Amino acid sequence: MTKINVLDKGYVRLVDCMGDDTTIVNAARVSYDKQTDELSDKDKRLIKFLATHEHTSPFRHATLQFEVYAPLMVARQWWKYVVGSNHTMEAWNESSRRYVTEEPEFYVPGSKSWRSAPNNSKQGSGKPVDDDLGMDALHRLMDTVFRGEQNYRWALENGICAEQARLFLPAYGMYVRWYWTASLQSVAHFINQRVESDAQKEIQEYAHAVKELALEKFPVSLSELIKP
Fold first, then answer.
1. How far apart are the first and last CA of the chain?
2. CB-based burial of residue 54 (10 Å sphere; 0-12 exposed, 13-18 middle, 19+ buried)?
3. pTM score, two decimals?
4. 18 falls in which pLDDT band (50, 70, 90)?
5. CA 225: distance to chain centroid?
6. Phi then psi dihedrals of residue 69, to 5 deg
7. Is the CB of residue 61 less than 8 Å from the CB of residue 23?
8. Which NCBIfam families does its entry note (predicted)?
9. 165 touches 158 (CB < 8 A)
């Protein structure tokens, strides 16, 4: 499996991977000029020791590259883990509507997917809103998207440059596509932060997809790095 669909139109795809669980073991044991080709129980214990005691540099010798298609509100939260990361091996390249004019797509939650504001927090969300309010929210969002797309096409058809025409598009729900390359340590840090129950629900779903794809490549190391 290399691709997992997320939300209504989004996905996470594992594009490439460098290393496996033995990469971490060999990086740790190079100090003693030791190397292994096949993971043993002793190697697994070493990985557990490294993760438990936060000897994290060996986990930065393995990398994963993902292609992600997600609403902009998810992308901008995700981006914080690149600009704010103290881990090495981070890269991000995103498609730009300065250069491409492909048909825009938008994340439109169903009428039963709208959530209430939380009672005791300035961020996150609470329980689902009632059906009537959810339906009203759905119709209002669809109307906003429709008008934005109309104005975007009008601007392009009348010769306005793409980098300004995009101003008409409702930004936060618009899908964007990017490549994210990160060390195994960085991937684990992202998963630990974004699968928590207080994280935005939409990015939780992407984090679970990343976790599932990464576990196939690093079943031992990632299991030790991820919080129980």
1. 24
2. exposed
3. 0.88
4. very high
5. 18
6. -125, 110
7. yes
8. thyX
9. no
DSSP letters, the chain, are --EEEETTTEEEEEEEEE--HHHHHHHHHGGGT---SS--HHHHHHHHHHHHTT--GGGGG-EEEEEEEEEHHHHHHHHHHHHT--SS-EEEEE--TTT--PPP-B----TT--BPPPSS-SSS--SBPPHHHHHHHHHHHHHHHHHHHHHHHHHHHTT--HHHHGGGS-STTBEEEEEEEEEHHHHHHHHHHHSSTTS-HHHHHHHHHHHHHHHHH-HHHHHHHS--
Binning pLDDT at 50, 70 and 90, where does residue 129 land? very high
| Residues tagged active-site | 194
- The two tokens of residue 7 are 């939300």
Would you state the structure tokens that stand for residue 128, as one six-digit string? 């689902």
pLDDT of 84: 58
In whole angstroms, give the CA distance from residue 59 to residue 221: 8
pLDDT tens, 92-108? 787 877 766 678 899 99
Q: What is the pLDDT of residue 212?
A: 97
State residue 83's pLDDT score: 61
